[in-house]
Amino acid sequence: MDYVLHIMVIASIYVILAMSLNLIVGFTGLPALGHAAFYGIGAYTSALLALNFGASPWIGLIAGAITAGLLGFVISFPALRLKGDYLALATLGAGVIVYSIAKNWVAVTRGPMGLPGIPGFTFLGYPLDGVWAYLILVLAFVGLTTFVIGRIVNSPFGRILKAIREDEIGTQAMGRDVNYYKVMVFMIGAAFAGVAGSLYAHYITFIDPSSFTLMESITILLMVVFGGLGSLRGSMVGAVILVVLPELLRFLGMPSSIAAPLRQMIYGLLLVLLMIKRPQGLMGHYRFK
Amino acid sequence: MSTILQISNLSKSFDGIQALNRVSLDLPRGKISAVIGPNGAGKTTLFNVLTGFLTPDEGEVSLGGKIIEDMRPHKLALLGIGRTFQNVRLFAQMTVLDNLLLAMKNPKGVSLWAALARPQIMQAEEHANRARGLELLELFRLADKAGELAENLSSGQSKLVEFARLLALNTDILLLDEPMAGLYPEMIETLKKTMQALITQGKTILFVEHNINVVMDISDHIVVLNHGQKIAEGPPQEIRKDEKVIEAYLGKRQDASA
Ligand SMILES: Nc1ncnc2c1ncn2[C@@H]1O[C@H](COP(=O)(O)OP(=O)(O)O)[C@@H](O)[C@H]1O
Ligand SMILES: [Mg+2]
Fold first, then answer.
1. CA dihedral sign, ordered A41, A44, A48, A54
2. What pLDDT is stored for residue A287 in this prediction?
């Protein structure tokens, strides 16, 4: 039972990651390949505050959201100058830089040895023991993310984001400062990824750089594309399917040495099938141009 | 006759091609002016410079007597210089009404705070904007397309929606790049009437058009460009007789062929 709940916690964390990336990629149309950087900086900020200063995970979560948001602010600047493939490469580069810092700044992050013993969340003084309690916590943040991002994309503000995705020049001609919206979207999307990172760190209690690689960024992007660009429900479905599906392999008695590479092959295969059958994703309406 | 937009000595070249060559022009306030000239004369380039999408090599633009320092496109739109595009630019995967709503001022609804505390803050504004958007669409008998995705419109309908969107933007100056190209004759009539109605509301229009009958019919003032240079300027009856204009269009003097 705990195993099922555990999968649900992990899936929920990915739902937050996928929805926050969808805001950037799906709704605003900015191809971003470095989401794991925001996820990672949120996780490390929160974990380090708890381990070095005894800070409450709640403080860590807020601090993680802020540092990730600031990183989003920094990364948005190349986004103002670059378009399309170049932007994708620049964000990919940013992701690689954050990963390298986590791996090589051993004095702070302990590098590849990782950070063990990260304390768990407490609620009103009580530790959240048991996976179910964590599931409730994480689901609450899924709710918050859905509420905030949902409101944004369905507002006049969100309409401008979609317009940027459709035609930047046209959006400028409407008197809208495209750069402002791009910066905001990167900051908001990054901040929620930071929250996901904090939730992950205090749940698993151990983090190392291997959780925040380029492959991780690609996995989150796959969830978004799979579920549908510009569809929050799609991001939920995409994240849950791509987390749960590989787990089913284990039930088929697959040893993990085979299951791991098979997982990536299944992702690839699903994506190819989807692009042929339903290029807008399971629940999306929008197509890449 | 007062000048709303003063263009002085604008030049722009693209690797070797002088698309605009020291063009100066006073745009009369509250009038319809036309820019004509053969293909490649620099008409669209002039619009692109005036709306900030291209940076001129030299020259400056003054609005209401003040030099415009910040020529970023969105700033110019907010200052009151709006445009349509020769190749229509709609937000393809959005509805026709959303296309118009994007153009409308929504100081309350556009903030992030309004997005989060949405219903209370922005609803009245959104309602009014929607009603206004439908009204504008109705001018061109397109209100029934309000919920349609822009990409599903015919090219003529797209052109009209883009024009309606510019009306929604509600700028003092409207730059129209070949607004009538590809439209049915009835729609051209509607568009002419709409342009004249805009003038009575105090708007200023500068438009590019190849249909010379339309140009002669509704323009107060005509500017002729050729190879990036202004070769003539004046009221329709003068332009009609201008030797340089006839030469530019026919490639030789009229009397030379006689
Ligand atoms: N973005 C551009 N890059 C290179 N050349 C351009 C560009 N825009 C226009 N030109 C060139 O500048 C000249 C004027 O073009 P344009 O302003 O579009 O003419 P018009 O609208 O009068 O037909 C043409 O020779 C055109 O090829
Ligand atoms: Mg042109």
1. positive
2. 67
DSSP 8-state symbol, B18? E
- Give contacts of A180 with chain B, Cβ < 8 Å: none
All structural domains of chain A with their residue ranges: 2-211
Q: Global pTM?
A: 0.91
Place of tokens 């601090």: A63
Where do the H-state alpha helices sit in B16-87?
Answer: 43-50, 73-79
Cα separation of A38 and A98, whole Å?
Answer: 9
Which 8-state DSSP code applies to residue A24?
I
User: Distance between CA B206 and CA B196 in Å, rounded?
Assistant: 12
Cβ(B92)–Cβ(A166) under 8 Å? yes
The tens digit of pLDDT for each residue in A32-43 reads 999 999 999 999
Ligand nearest to the CA of B19: 1
Ligand 1 site-directed mutation target among B45, B176, B207, most atoms within 8 Å of CB: B45
Cross-chain residue pair B126–A287, CB shorter than 8 Å: no
Do B150 and B96 contact (CB within 8 A), yes or no?
Answer: yes
The answer to whether A202 and A118 are in contact (CB under 8 A) is yes
Helix/strand/coil for A195: helix
- The protein residues having their C-beta less than 5 angstroms from ligand 2 (an ion) are B 43-44, 86
Q: Hey, are the CB atoms on B102 and A159 less than 8 Å from each other?
A: yes
- Chain A / chain B CB contacts < 8 angstroms: 92
Do you know the residue count of chain A?
A: 289
Which ligand does the CA of B41 lie closest to? 1
For A209-264, the pLDDT digits (tens) are: 999 999 899 999 999 998 999 999 999 999 999 898 888 777 777 777 777 777 77
CA distances from B214 to B36, B40, B116, B206, B210 (A): 11, 20, 49, 13, 8
**For residue A12, which of A286, A191, A203 has the smallest C-alpha distance?**
A203
Q: How far is B238 from chain A (nearest CA, A)?
A: 34
Residues A174, A164: Cα–Cα separation, whole Å: 11
**For the CA of B41, the nearest atom of ligand 1:** 22
Cα distances (angstroms) measured from residue A238 to each of A274, A280, B168, B212, B227: 12, 12, 38, 56, 55
ipTM at complex level:
0.91
The answer to whether B140 touches B152, Cβ cutoff 8 Å, is no
